[in-house]
């Protein structure tokens, strides 16, 4: 095997451990790890995994909650030359069996409270909270001293969110993710002096690959939480222990709707990152009004690109609050029509990418890979507009655009109009089959207080052209989402199509 060249995921940690060995790298609950201790734990965990009879290139599922053990397991897979398969801890039944089976995972690292959900016959090893867990075995394991992985080796199968079809495993190499880490560091202004808190699921690419691993690369001290609990987050900010937070719009909406949002001292929060789905402009304006000194970054992308593709920096928000920014360091992007030809600036089209951050294709899905990678570019499925200064605005998912009476309506514009009504806590706009309109623009609303369908329809008509205004409003208690916070509009269409 040829010598490694350092462009590996585990190499990111190794370099930080040599540079700042005594600095605290990770805190989780009552445990903390210096960079030197974390690097040693990763080497010992790599030995534990290989002692299970695994060979380089084998897939290893990870089915657990946020924890230091989850992070160590990912880095150990990387160091041992194994392919990590993160699995949504909320999956059960056929959905869970599909990913474990489709990936061909030889072993699944599982938290004990989740292991019973796995299909019968699947080999498991507890991540933590058991005498024979991965974490418990570190004390007696010897450090791994075998060959380094190569930068072109696969390190992770990053399954797509599956909002429109069965999830696909994006084949990520060490080289792709290391490029993405550098893009994240530069575009998001990550530094060793930041105090980031990581509360979103670590199996999801945004929290792991845009924030936690890049922050380990620069040598910051990272706090891992089980979940985005508002009380805990606000306490950490008030105590001065956290000043950097990433959350999808659904979490920011929840935090801004808390009764104590207006009274807690949140002035210590310096950097706020949002992404994973479109942030309603009225919500962003409300957050900025409450925390005027807070630097907001809009981070956009998708699993197949590691996932960061564009960033709107704090000083770029004025006049373009709905934009997702410009491409990051290692990403090139175009907006094209259905024939793959560039469209003029200001014209909607599909955004396509070329980048060393991109996946190698989809695991064991050659037809889907061929369909996504055409003419040397990855076709994202996102409908976007580019302006003359290189800023992109995501209009919608191509599959979510509504054909109302032969006119295409982007759901985002309708949602932003409805968010300006005080009684709308959350909203998703979908198209439902209609004999007259082909698809009727329909607003699915989670209300805040008393409001009628007629009131919201009148409000929308004041804000929008008549053909864009909803024909119907449906009230629900909550919107269906995947674990990254994306609204599952497919489920809404299925529920209300009848």
Fold and architecture overview:
It is a single chain. 30% of the residues lie in helices and 25% in strands. Strands 2-1-10-9-11-12-13-14-15 form a nine-stranded mixed beta sheet. The mean pLDDT is 92. The chain is globular, with a radius of gyration of 23 Å. The chain starts with 8 loop residues before the first helix and ends with a helix. With 498 residues, the protein is of the alpha/beta class.
What is this entry, summarized?
With 498 residues, the protein is of the alpha/beta class. It has 15 helices and 25 strands. Helix content is 30%, strand content 25%.
Structural descriptors:
nine-stranded mixed beta sheet, 498 residues, alpha/beta, 15 helices, five-stranded antiparallel beta sheet, 25% strand, 25 strands
Strand content: 25-35%
Count of individual beta strands? 25
Q: Based on helices, strands and strand pairing, what is the structural class?
A: alpha/beta
Please give the share of residues in helix.
25-40%
Main sheet strand line-up: 2-1-10-9-11-12-13-14-15
Based on Cα principal axes, name the global outline. Answer: globular
How widely separated are the two ends? 59 Å
């Amino acid at each position: 095997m040829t010598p490694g060249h350092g462009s590996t995921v585990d190499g990111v940690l190794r370099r930080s451990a040599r540079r700042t060995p005594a600095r605290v790298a990770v805190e989780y609950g009552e445990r903390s790890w210096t960079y030197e201790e974390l690097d040693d734990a990763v080497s010992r965990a790599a030995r534990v995994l290989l002692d299970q009879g695994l060979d380089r290139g084998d897939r290893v599922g990870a089915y657990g909650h946020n924890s230091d053990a989850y992070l160590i397991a990912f880095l150990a897979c990387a160091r041992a030359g194994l392919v990590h398969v993160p699995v949504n801890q909320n999956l059960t039944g056929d959905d869970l069996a599909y990913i474990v089976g489709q990936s061909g995972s030889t072993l699944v690292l599982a938290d004990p409270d989740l292991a019973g959900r796995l299909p019968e016959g699947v080999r498991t090893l507890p991540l933590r909270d058991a005498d024979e867990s991965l974490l418990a075995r570190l004390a007696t394991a010897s450090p791994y001293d075998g060959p380094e992985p190569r930068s072109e080796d696969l390190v992770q199968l990053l399954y797509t969110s599956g909002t429109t079809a069965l999830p696909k495993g994006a084949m990520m190499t060490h080289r792709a993710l290391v490029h993405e880490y550098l893009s994240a560091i530069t575009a998001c202004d990550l530094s060793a002096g930041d105090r980031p808190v990581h509360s979103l699921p670590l199996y999801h690419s945004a929290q792991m690959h845009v924030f936690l691993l890049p922050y380990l690369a620069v040598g910051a001290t990272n706090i891992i939480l089980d979940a985005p609990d508002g009380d805990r987050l606000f306490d950490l900010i008030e105590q001065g222990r956290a000043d950097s937070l990433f959350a999808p719009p659904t979490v920011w909406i929840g935090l801004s709707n808390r009764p104590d949002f207006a009274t807690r001292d949140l002035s210590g929060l310096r950097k706020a990152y949002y992404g994973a789905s479109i942030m309603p402009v009225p919500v962003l304006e409300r957050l900025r009004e409450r925390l005027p000194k807070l630097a907001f970054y809009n981070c956009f992308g998708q699993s197949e690109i590691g996932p960061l593709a564009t960033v709107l920096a704090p000083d770029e928000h004025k006049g373009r609050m709905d934009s997702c920014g410009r491409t990051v360091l290692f990403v090139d992007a175009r907006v094209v029509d259905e024939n793959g030809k560039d469209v003029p600036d200001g014209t909607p089209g599909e955004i396509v990418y070329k980048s060393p951050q991109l996946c190698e294709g989809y695991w064991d899905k050659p037809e889907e890979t061929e369909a996504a990678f055409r003419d040397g570019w990855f076709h994202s499925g996102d409908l976007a507009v580019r302006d003359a200064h290189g800023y992109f605005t995501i209009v919608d998912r191509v599959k979510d655009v509504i054909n109302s009476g032969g006119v295409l309506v982007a759901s985002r514009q309708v949602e932003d109009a409805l968010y300006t009504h005080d009684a709308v806590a959350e909203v998703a706009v979908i198209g439902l089959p209609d004999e007259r309109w082909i698809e009727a623009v329909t607003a699915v609303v989670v209300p805040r207080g008393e409001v009628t369908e007629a009131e919201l329809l009148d409000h929308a008509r004041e804000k929008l052209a008549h053909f864009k205004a909803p024909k119907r409003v449906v009230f629900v208690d909550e919107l269906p989402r995947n674990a990254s916070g994306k609204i599952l509009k497919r489920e809404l269409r299925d529920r209300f199509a009848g």
